[in-house]
Amino acid sequence: MNQKTEQVDPKTLKPNPWNVNVMSPDNEEKLxxxxxxxxxxxxxIVRELQDGSLQIxxxxxxxxxxxRLGIKEVPIVNLGKISDEKAKEISLVDNGRFGHDDTLRLAxxxxxxxxxxxxxxxxxxxxxxxxxxFSSSSIALDALDLSDEDESPKLPTEKAIQTHQILRFKIPVxxxxxxxxxxESISKTQKFTQGDSLSxxxxxxxxxxxxx
Length: 212
What we know:
Elements: E1 4-8, E2 13-14, H1 25-38, E3 44-48, E4 54-58, H2 60-68, E5 74-78, H3 84-95, H4 103-111, H5 116-119, H6 127-135, H7 176-189, H8 197-210
Parallel strand pairs: 2-4, 3-5
Antiparallel strand pairs: 1-5, 3-4
């Protein structure tokens, strides 16, 4: 394929009739916020039709957001005159993901970028998603002292000046929602809402352990 990079008016781009990717109003707002924050750093993927017009293969939501924001030119990658079959294949690949996030590493990355309220305004995560991601980094199994002589876990000794300590652990992805729901429920019923999200989750976990 002969690819060309250009800048064009997003209003001149035609949507394709097979796009299966849908976006909620909340995520449309987040997309607009991200474009305002970072600009159109990801180009729209298009192909040339027989009449010379350009049809979107990937990035229709970005193009529509640019129009709503009054952006006059957006970057495109023009793949030329390719078949319907090839265009559909590329469209599906563009909208898909071949991997999944390591939740612990993702939590560590996000922790340095902002809090739940800020990140949820422009990233493709809900507040509940971010709370679950951050909660996944609150306890670490490698912080427990497990020796051959004593198989019972011992918590690390905290310095006198410390009031809290961050511990980390990993849980199966399919259990994240359940664990998060339990922690949120305990936090609400016990009114653990005065601290930051990590402290509130920790208080809920301590309460659960004390009543185990």
